[in-house]
Every structure is written in C-alpha cells, then in structure tokens.
Structures
1.
Amino acid sequence: MNKAFEIEVIGMGNNITGYPGAFTPVVNKIILSVLNYESKVLHLFSGVSYIGDERVDIERPEATKREDIIKFIENDKRKWDFVILDPPYEIKQKSKLEEYGRASSVAADVILRRKLVDYFNKYTENILWLDMCAPMPKNFKRVKLWFLFPGGYHTIRVLSWLKRTSQEVFEFN
C-alpha cells in the first residue's frame, strides 16, 4: 500500500471522567504529544477537556466559550496553529444533539461541514479531529491517523491529524 501518511493502531483505554465522550488518558496523551507548548489551540466541542487556549462547547462549564459552534466560527477571526474537534458522533438519542442545536452528527450535517471547512481554510494550519470517520477537508492532507479501539462491541474511533497543503486560502492580517 502506498500512502503518504502514518497509521497507528492502538487501544483507546477507558474514559474515567464520568462524562460520556470525554477523552481517555490515551487520547489525551496522543493529542498533547502532537501539540507543543507554544501552539495556539482552538478546541471545538470541547466537552470536559481543558486542552486548548479557547474551548468551545454549548453545554459544558469547562468551556471558555459556551456557544453554538456555527455561531462561534462565523464570528471568530483569530489564527490557530491547531483546531481540535471532538464532535458528537455516536448518537443514541436525538435529544442529546438537540442540546447542540442540531439533530445530526457533524459527518451528516452538510451545512456545518462546509462552514467548518471554510473556517479551517482561513484560520488554521493543523486539525486534530476525533470521529468515527477520517474526514479530509479541502486543502488539507493527512499526516497521521490513529485507529483507536475501545474494546467490547463499541465502535472504533479515528483521530486524524490534518495539515494544510495550500497557503493561498489562508488569510493573513
């Protein structure tokens, strides 16, 4: 197989926070190993995580901004070295997503996906995206994929590290 990115297969570990969807210690360690202390980091759908200079989540008090993601990205004009995303993806109850003001996952929400891609192309160089798929936004390439196995009969997660390929879209102020 000819690929231009790394792949790592690893056990996901257990979520010990008590909050469904929180990063496991394994996922935290991977993310922190990619970031450096000088990186400006935006974390969308941040949940209970404290990773990121700005953490956006509509419902969690740990977030630095408690706001709808679309509203946030429509107004935020700052440049970020990394954007981390951990959107809701395993939707067992529609009511869970209604807290986020939408009724589908990011993978199924074409409008939100387009707005995110536009935002990424203007304001970041790198994306760390944890989901049940391996998204590939326009003008980005894969650096590495981590296939995270939670065990039991749970669905695999994929942490994608994506890097900008095209500088022409990135707007410098």
Note: The chain is about 20% helix and 25% strand.
2.
Amino acid sequence: MLSLNWRGITEDFKYRLIILQTICCNSMLSTGDRNIE
C-alpha cells in the first residue's frame, strides 16, 4: 500500500515537473529563442 502511494506521489511530481518545463520553454520561445524543442 505504501509503495503504491509513493508511486502515485512520484508520478504526480513528474507530471508537475513536465508542466514547469513546458511553461519555461513557452516563455523562452516567446522571447525569440527557438532552439528549445
């Protein structure tokens, strides 16, 4: 039960990290930097 809970927390953390990266990339792209994929 605990390991399953930990997995859920880890997946949630990864998901939030992806969102943060996407926001950062979008703000970088809006400044004119097109090198980020």
Note: The chain has one domain: 1-26.
3.
Amino acid sequence: MTDWKRILRAVAPRARADIVAAFVALDAEIEAAGIATDLRRAHFLAQVVPESAYLTRLEENLNYTTAERIRATWKTRFQDVAAAAPYVRNPKALANFVYGGRMGNNRPGDGWLFRGGGLGMTTGRANYRKAGFESSPEELRKPLIALRTALTFWVDNRCEAYADRDDVVGLRQVWNGGQIGIAETREILAKAKAVLKTLPAQAKLKALRYPVGAVDGDHAARTTGAVQLLQHRAGLPVTGELDDATLAALDEAEPLPVAKKDANLAASRTVQGAGAAGTFGFAELVQSAGELKDQVESAHAQISAGTVFGLVMGTVIVAGAAYAIYARWDDAGRPLPGFLARRFPSLMGAA
C-alpha cells in the first residue's frame, strides 16, 4: 500500500484534505492503472500537481486581478493590455471569450460551463464529452471522480511508457498538448523523486533506532545526520546522501544498540544522527564543526572590518558559537570534561 498521505504532504504541503483522501481511497485503482513504481508515481504527480495548483483546485481559476496577467496568458486572444482590461475579476466573461467557439464549445456560455476541471484541467465541451461528463461537467470537479478521470487518461494514452523512460517532455506534450508549465513540471518531478526515495529510507532508519526525526520525506539535517552515521558504521564514504551503496547498506543494517546512559543523547532535539552507544555522534560532530566554521568565518569578516563594532561583534559570534557547542553537549546529557568543570564551575551549577 502506498502511503499517499505522507507523499502528498511532502510534495504538495497545501493539498486539500479531500483530494489527499481521494488518493488514499483509490490506492488500489492507482496501482491497477499501472502507476505502481516510484518513477511512475513521480511522473503522475508531476502532471497533476501543477495542473491543480498543488492539489488545491479542481477547477480552473479565471479570476485574474490584472490585465497584464490576462494578456500574458492569452497573447493570441488579446492584442494589448487595454483589450484585456474588461475581463479583470470577471472570470465568467473571460472563459466565454477565450474558450468560446473552439474545443467543441458551440453554444453561448459553453466557455464557462466547460472551463478547466479535474486533476488534468479538462477544457472544452468536446473534451468533457470524451471524458464522459458533457451532461454533468460539475461532476469532474469532485475529488474521487477527478482522480479516476486522470487515471483513465493515463491508461488510455499509455503514459507509463513515457514515465518508464523518464521522458518528462514527451509526457507533458501528451498531457498538456504542448509544453506550458514544463519548468514547474520538472521541479515537481524532482521533488517527487526525492520524496519517494527519502520516505522509505527514513522509515527504515527509524525502525533501526537511528534518530532520523520525522518520517516526512524531507531530507533535512536530522535525516542527513542519520544517513552519515549509517555510512560511517558501514565503512562507506560519509556524504549524507542516499546513493545506491547506502540504500543497500540500509537493507542489511542492524538496529543501533542504544545503551541506557545514551537515552538522552538519542532523544536530544539537537542531535542529527547520533545515538550509537558510547559516541557523541559522528554526524553531530560533523554538523557542529561545519556550523562552527561558518560562525568563525562570519566573525573573521567582522573583525577584518577594523571597527570597534566589528571587533565586538566578532567576539560575540565566536563566544556564541562556543556556547552553542557546549549547549549541544549538555543537551545530550554528557558530563562536562573535568578541566572545563574545574575552570568554569558555574557551568556545573556550582554556586
């Protein structure tokens, strides 16, 4: 079963709850339509997500607020901005003007009645007829029906062939009839691919007691740290990336043996992949070192300015960076090294 709720939350965070629910409810039908591999899922989402304003709309938004935007969208319909002005905030008139007399629209009001609808933004009487909704166009704007119609389009047009060869341009041509929105389609495709790789890896890492954080498809600091720790333990290059070798190592990995004394470390909000017994955390050390380097470079820039303000700011930055590392160590439940405890007893809570 595909975890559509998590996938869509990561790819389209603002997605409507009823549209997400439709994906969950129709999981078996999505699979039956041949959308059964991560590459096909990514390509399907790359088409339907931008068409539906990131799964927030199932009907075309024709309520434009400026004539310039109308003119930019329909350059062949409006010779200049002045010609578009009467249609600002006038969606019904705009639809009837730009869609009337084409795509099977042959009656007054057809442009508005058969405006873009569904996950594929089906437009025009002829296309609604082909999809089976000429007599009930509003039905296509309901989540379950919109998704089923998109699946039918996918199957009828053999979209899986384009997806399998990762042909985003060819699939966009089939889906859109051109290349409108190709840049956004590419962006969503890349995001979906990353999410579909990251989610199962996060779930496996969490099951193995790696402190990966949330299973949310976001390859952020905690996930990077957990992957780095896995790579370190497996003797792989420590990159933090989910390459093939790392995924193979993850499949063979054993759960982390977390000792009782390391419970605070494993649960720490600031640990980005630490948690193995007896370690402060290889990935945490890497991250802290990187952050300290950034802070020192910032301090150097301030001090190099040669001003009193710059000297003060540089000193504050270095002091703040040093305290941040101490705070991470303390947050992890680690004792302060003896020489520091003797030199700075206040850090140990001494009066």
Note: The CA atoms of residues 302 and 310 lie 4 Å apart.
4.
Amino acid sequence: MPGTIAAAVLDPEDQLNRAFMALADPVRRKILARLALGDATVNEIAQPFTVTLQAISKHLQVLEGAGLITRSREAQRRPCHLNTTALGPLAEWIENYRLQAEERFARLDELLASTTDKDSPEKEKNNEHQHNNH
C-alpha cells in the first residue's frame, strides 16, 4: 500500500508502540483472540461483531501494520494469521517491568521486616516496663 510503512522495517521501539496502540482497542484484542484459535478470513472474523465488514477490515489493517497478524492467499481465500513472533517483544517488555516491580516489593518487604525486627525487642521492653509500673 502506498504511504504505509511495513512493520518489518520499523525500529523495535516503533514496533512496540504500534503493537500496544493496536492492542488498546477491545475489538482488535477480540480479533487476536479469535486468530489464536486458528486462521480465519475477514468474513469469518467479522461474524460475531456488530460492526461493518469495512470496520473489521480497518481493524485488520491496524493489526497487520503493527505486525500482529499476517495475511496469505489460498486460491480465492485471504486468511489472516496470528503472528505469534510479534507477541514476544510485547511479553518481554511487560515481563521486564513486572520483574522490576517485584524487586522493589521484595526490597520493601525486607525493609519492613528489618524495621519490625528492630522494633519488636524495644516494644517488649516498653510493655514490660509499663506492666511493672502498674
């Protein structure tokens, strides 16, 4: 298509941005979920939706531009395929930040545990002192 940039020539950051933008739409996520079950034509993909065939085609163009799906030609059919390879960088990006968050929580847990351990003997001494004075 004139004026479009093939997903394959985008730098990784642009590819990631396009993929996340494509996934921001619930219809496109449902289309990907359908394609995870197997290849399908535009008509097959459009079946459960209340939007027009033209709208589904536009959603497919966005998904294809993001590299999340591919299309092939089989005789008269042009089935769409989920490009599972394109999901890898998305999963890696999410996993990276998940791990960073887990590390921060683990450090916070350690800090809280060390603070609690330091406070425990002191609290016991104060409680004993108060108990002995009454």
Note: The helical segments are 12-23, 26-36, 42-46, 53-65, 84-133.
